[in-house]
Design brief:
Elements: H1 6-14, E1 44-45, E2 62-66, H2 75-80, E3 86-92, E4 96-97, H3 101-110, E5 115-120, H4 127-137, E6 148-150, H5 166-184, E7 189-192, H6 194-199, E8 210-213, H7 219-222, E9 230-238, E10 246-251, H8 255-265
Parallel strand pairs: 2-3, 3-5, 5-6, 6-7, 7-8, 8-9
Antiparallel strand pairs: 1-9, 2-10, 3-4, 9-10
Helix pairs in contact: 4-5
């Protein structure tokens, strides 16, 4: 059962080194790592997993991802409770904008939470059209985390359940990633789930940071030792300031690694 009081988590983390620092190179942005205040996570879980071996609580830097389904978030409380970063759903396909994106983006930044935007991929629209839609709605803001491409299967979509072949998936992803990188000046992060990642050999897209979902095992086991930078370890998290359940995420390094990663990757 993964529940920690803030002090307990802080003391536990102080005794643990990071599993490993992120290995992929940062994008074009470079800088000197300035100290970043990392707040210990005071999260709960409505349906905690019994972790064997290395578990999420051994990582120093935690955050969330959010969309309109979380409702109005008290970002100040969330930040004080250990939300050290947030990825916000911005767009989907070529015609959907998440209604909570703009208010979440503004409020989270005011609360001092580093934020990035993600695009949910739609397998029935061209990559260039989806990239233009994302660019239209996500600002180029100083301090923003790299944009994220969320690629997974959509078996419950009412309009598109296509499963293109791996070569097509990667070719379309490259178009999107290249357009986004050219516009924002940041190498995008790729989010994926185990079945999609493995079938489409997403690691072949090159030296991107990966944000990987794994709610029943450590990523190094579920993904065969592939590099990861962010780990989505729960979809049933309980976070002060967030109504209902939230997705919980961990960064792959120490607090110092986080400062260095931000210096390399956050938009100047």
């Amino acid at each position: 059962m993964w529940r920690f009081a803030g002090l307990t988590l802080f003391l536990f983390l102080a005794a643990c080194g990071p599993d490993r620092a992120p290995q992929s190179p940062g994008p074009q942005t470079a800088g000197t790592a300035a100290p970043v205040q990392v707040r210990p996570a005071r999260f709960g879980d409505a349906n905690p997993h019994e972790w064997n071996g290395r578990h999420p609580g051994s990582y120093a830097v935690h955050g969330i991802d959010a969309s309109r389904w979380q409702g109005q978030i008290d970002w100040k409380t969330a930040r004080e409770s250990g939300v050290n970063f947030a990825f916000l759903k911005a767009t989907e396909g070529g015609d959907i904008v998440d209604a909570a994106f703009a208010p979440n983006w503004a409020a989270a930044r005011r609360a001092g939470v580093p934020v990035g935007a993600y695009h949910f991929w739609y397998h029935c629209r061209p990559a260039a059209e989806q990239a233009r839609w994302f660019i239209r709605h996500v600002p180029r803001a100083a301090g923003a985390l790299p944009p994220v491409l969320d690629m997974e299967w959509t078996p419950f979509s009412p309009t598109c359940t296509r499963r293109p072949p791996p070569e097509s998936i990667r070719a379309e992803a490259r178009i999107f990633l290249d357009m986004i990188e050219a516009y924002y000046g940041q190498r995008p992060i790729i989010y994926s789930a185990p079945d999609f990642f493995q079938r489409n050999e997403m690691w072949r897209l090159g030296p991107h940071d990966f944000w990987l979902r794994s709610v029943a095992g450590h990523p190094r086991d579920i993904y065969g030792g592939r590099h990861w930078t962010f780990w989505q370890y729960s979809g049933t998290g309980l976070v002060p300031g967030v109504r209902g359940r939230a997705d919980l995420n961990a960064f792959a390094g120490s607090a110092a690694d986080w400062s260095a990663w931000l210096a390399r990757n956050a938009r100047p």
